[in-house]
Amino acid sequence: MKIMLPANSKMQSKAFTYGVATASFQIEGAADSRLACIWDTFCATPGKVRDGSNGDQACEHVKLWREDIDLIESLGVDAYRLSISWPRVLHKDGSLNTQGVQFYTDLLDELNRRGIKPFVTLYHWDLPQHIEDNGGWLNRETAYLFADYTDKVTQAFGDRVYSYATFNEPFCSSYLGYEIGVHAPGLAKKSYGRQSAHHLLLAHGLAMKVLQKNSPNTENGIVLNFTPCYSATDSAEDVQAASKADQYFNQWYIKPLFDRCYPEIINDFATEDMPVIEEGDFDIIAQPIDFLGINFYTRAVYKADAVTGFSQIDMVDNPKTDIGWEIYPQSFTDLLTSLHALYPLPPMYITENGAAMGDKLIDGKVDDQDRLAYYDAHLNAVNNAIEQGVNIVGYFAWSLMDNFEWAEGYLKRFGIVYVDYDTQKRTLKSSAYAYKNLLANRK
Ligand code: GCO
């Protein structure tokens, strides 16, 4: 099977950026040459990560990065999205760790030498543990520490970077990490979730100001994830439930960036769940951004619930990926057109999209036709949104290679390249060949 887009598609042009994405903690390993982070601690806590694994080795990318760049180049991509490990580039006292910085400057130099644009995410969840020990994202001070880290690291990188994203998925850091505790640091309280979200967004705004000053020629923005919410039935109650879920899980993170407020569901909150918001915060948060990154994997369906307001229902009969996420590409188009209708958006990149599948390495090959079909359907869903006038300028596959999938450990494979964790051998899957073929045939 091939990935097929309509012949006249803008996504068939070389002006459309294609890339692959990874994140520091998920691939780097070499935990002994950086500070401890909240994911080290979380992994060391029994019962938190499904296979009891950690990021100590991961894909050993710190050791194998040159080979990994060969791999990236072999795919024919225009861009590579990576993240910087805060605990690798700063010491505890906030000064630069020159060895850690050197790792990234060498990597960035090599990407540039090969004409691959570096898309750098400054925070993909690996908060230094000593900052968490001081309250982490519940402490307003952390937002200022993030701005300081941004200042130091962007000065060190100079003009090596094509694009900076402040944060990857503040929803995951705040909701999964501080509200329901399934991600690091594993805290679980509604007020924690909302307060940490506010501090993450504040940190984004503060860092945007630093980026505008230190790096005015890069494309600077943020990456948000969305799981579009549908109602189980047409009943007014279910429709309202889906709207509330959407406000709570999706709009919460984007509305402040453009409308300088949280969605109206905040008015339903009990006093003790209200985040502390200082005067002027929304003006900081709503800095202009050059691009918005969108991560999309699946949708969710809701019905009304007398106690919680909304509850998700399992679409039992619909196809799912290996991680149990429904495959529903139409919701990707719906998401993009709805955001376009709601907000005055800058150009958008799809910064992550992909699927975990139950890959089998047989005779040195992984024939992942299921993942390939997912990519075909979802790239076409993006194309449909573009045809409806949404300004999408690039697409990144998640992920370059199989890696540490957070609370699932190494049990779920999202790569278009297979990783044998015993030998660290990388093998291109059928989806990687199809992606490469799509890119090679652009006009
Ligand atoms: C995310 C993260 C990635 C994940 C991927 C699959 O979107 O959650 O950016 O780190 O690995 O999404 O869950």
Structure report:
The chain is of the alpha/beta class and 443 residues long. It has helices at residues 24-27, 38-43, 61-74, 86-89, 98-113, 129-132, 141-157, 170-179, 190-214, 236-259, 281-285, 330-342, 369-387, 430-440; strands spanning 17-21, 79-83, 117-123, 163-168, 219-226, 229-231, 291-296, 300-305, 309-313, 348-352, 392-398, 417-420, 425-428. The strands form 3 sheets. The protein has an 8-stranded parallel beta barrel with strand order 1-2-3-4-5-7-10-11, surrounded by 5 helices. A 3-stranded mixed β-sheet has the order 6-8-9, with helices on one face. It has a two-stranded antiparallel sheet with strand order 12-13. Helix 7 (141-157) runs parallel beside helix 9. Its EC number is 3.2.1.21. The active site is at 169 (proton donor), 352 (nucleophile).
Number of domains: 1
Q: Count the helices. How many?
A: 14
Percentage of residues in strands: 15-25%
What is the helical fraction, as a range of percent? 25-40%
Q: From the alpha-carbon coordinates, what is the Rg to the nearest angstrom?
A: 21 Å
Shape annotation = globular
In whole angstroms, how far apart are the ends? 21 Å
**Which strands sit side by side, in order, in the main sheet?**
1-2-3-4-5-7-10-11
Could you name the CATH class? Answer: Alpha Beta
Q: How many β strands by DSSP?
A: 13
Q: CATH homologous superfamily name?
A: Glycosidases
Enzyme class: hydrolase
Binding site for substrate: 26, 124, 168, 297, 398, 405-406
Protein name: Beta-glucosidase
Family: Belongs to the glycosyl hydrolase 1 family.
